[in-house]
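lol forgot to send this yesterday, sorry. struct tokens for the thing we talked abt
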């Protein structure tokens, strides 16, 4: 229930969640209703909260947006 309630504040205060909500409710194919999109964001908040708590890493908007962190690897010659 707390995650569901957090969605409303997150949509307004967090550009990552706001963009995700807009994408889910306005895409051409498989457009979600407002309630469905809020459920998707609530699930994302719970997954990301779990990841932050279990790994100790801070929340990263790049990971939240794209799902992975792109690491720059330097090749030693």
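and heres what i got for the seq, position by position
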């Amino acid at each position: 229930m707390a995650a569901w309630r957090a969605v409303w504040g997150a949509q307004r205060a967090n550009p990552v969640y706001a963009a995700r909500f807009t994408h889910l409710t306005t895409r051409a194919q498989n457009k979600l209703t407002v309630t469905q999109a809020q459920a998707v964001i609530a699930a994302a908040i719970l997954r990301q909260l779990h990841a932050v708590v279990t790994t100790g890493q801070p929340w990263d908007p790049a990971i939240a947006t794209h799902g992975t962190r792109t690491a720059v690897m330097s090749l030693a010659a």
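The helical segments are 2-13, 15-26, 34-55, 61-66. anyway ping me if u want another try
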